Amino acid sequence: MAVAELGTDGTHIMHMPLPPLPPLVPPTSEAPSEIRGLIAQLHREYTALDDGAVATYIPELSKADPAKFGICLVTADGRVAEAGDCDEPFTIQSISKPFTYGLAIEEWGHDKVFRHVGVEPSGDAFNSIELHPGSTRPYNPMINTGAIAVSGLLYARHGEAALEQMLTRFSQLAGRQLSIDEDVYRSERATGHRNRAIVHLLLNCGVVEGDAEAALDLYFRQCSVLVTCRDLAVMAATLANMGRNPLTGVSAFELTSVKDVLSIMFTCGMYDYSGQWAYRVGVPAKSGVSGGVMAVVNRQLGIGTYSPRLDRYGNSCRGIAACEAMASRLGLHVFDCLNVGSSYLTAVL
Ligand code: DON
Q1: Rounded distance, CA 112 to CA 185, Å?
Q2: CA atoms within 13 A on the CB side of 161
Q3: Position with higher pLDDT, 6 vs 96
Q4: Cα dist. 323→71, 95, 108, 120, 346 in Å?
Q5: Is the CB–ligand 1 distance for residue 151 below 6 Å?
Q6: What is the predicted pLDDT for the residue at 339?
Q7: Which of 10, 49, 75, 109 has the fewest CB atoms within 10 Å distance of its CB?
């Protein structure tokens, strides 16, 4: 039975019991050989793709090796298939955004977060300085305006402890202790004038309340969390597994926030490429400017890719191509003809 609790802002937070979960498998467990073979083949095929360019607008990111390429898939019961540079550390950048959004929903409740950040695709670039004209709040939490508003909510809740809370939750999602790349953090803090303009716009409109610089600092730090492509796949598998990390068994997110996070990733996760991504790949996903892509196949898979050469939208060229091919070869698209839809309807019809 669902348990209702009164949030601090007076809204009700529902805590739903988790449906039965599959038993844990050891972290070293391998995915079936057909899947491992496909991942190795995709890695070979798309290593040849050298389109795109490494991001330079955060100076420290320009040091990334453009040749690096990893693909990792983790099933919702913890089996792994990977190829290439899956241990290469890079900063999470915008892939932090769905997770901080989920955290804010759990901390503040859905209604309060919705009053600060909308859920509409903007159709514009991730760093656009714009608000939804009707509501004067950010369009959605996957672009910089919305993500900085979310950081403001987390800072308002926990103050200086917000960073530790966030790192703890990110670490639970990845199943290992994560840390911050101080050089990338300092590099973005020194050059992130556009984001500084955004936070002051949000302050002016009342979307960020209180210490705007502290909210921005939290945002810069969340973007500088170091991950690997395997971490991204495990974090995605945790979302696929209804918030419970399939390797450690730790519950990192509640069921209701997982649903909110996946919905917003589906419609807005790939910025102004989100429509094309939904059309071609058809699963919730999020990309980051350091070259990561994370995709989730509900109840089945987490996918992480890393290759730092980006297209004009700020998405990894090889990551997009490999995910597109994987979706087509494995039938991952949510509207694939073999997707049977509601299990309730299957049972009663
Ligand atoms: O705020 C920024 O510009 C970066 N810290 C994150 C942007 C990002 O990852 C966009 N992704 N493609």
Answers
A1: 29
A2: 3
A3: 96
A4: 9, 16, 34, 24, 29
A5: no
A6: 83
A7: 10
Would you state the structure tokens that stand for residue 25, as one six-digit string?
A: 């498998």
Query: Which member of 94, 187, 290, 307 is catalytic?
Result: 94
Q: What is the mean pLDDT of the chain?
A: 92
Give the contacts of 214 (CB within 8 A, at least 6 positions apart): 155, 159, 160
Residue 61's pLDDT is 98
Give the percent of the chain with pLDDT over 90: 86
Helices (H) and strands (E) in the chain, counts: 13, 9
* pLDDT given at position 27: 53
Residue 172's pLDDT band (boundaries 50, 70, 90)? very high
| CA-based nearest residue to 96, from 231, 195, 1, 282 | 231
pLDDT of amino acid 63? 98
Probe residue for ligand 1, chosen from 56, 126, 225, 270 as the CB with the greatest number of ligand atoms within 8 Å: 126
Distance CA 319, CA 232 (A): 12
Which tens digit of pLDDT belongs to each residue from 61-95?
Answer: 999 999 999 999 999 999 999 999 999 999 999 99
Q: Is 260 in the pocket of ligand 1 (CB under 6 A)?
A: no
The residue type at 118: G
Q: Are 225 and 77 in contact (CB under 8 A)?
A: no
Ligand 1 near 185 CB (within 6 A): no
Is the beta carbon of 144 within 6 A of some atom in ligand 1? Answer: yes
In whole angstroms, give the CA distance from residue 216 to residue 50. 34
Q: Is the CB of 319 under 6 A from ligand 1?
A: no
Q: How close is the Cα of 220 to the center of ligand 1, in Å?
A: 9
For residue 94, report the distance from its CA to the centre of ligand 1, in Å. Answer: 5
What percentage of the chain exceeds 70 in pLDDT?
92
Q: Which of 208, 283, 289, 293 is catalytic?
A: 289
- Distance from the CA of 147 to the center of ligand 1, in angstroms? 10
Residue type, 315: N
Find out whether the beta carbon of 195 lies less than 6 Å from any atom of ligand 1.
yes
Q: Which of 203, 236, 225 is nearest to 98 (CA)?
A: 236
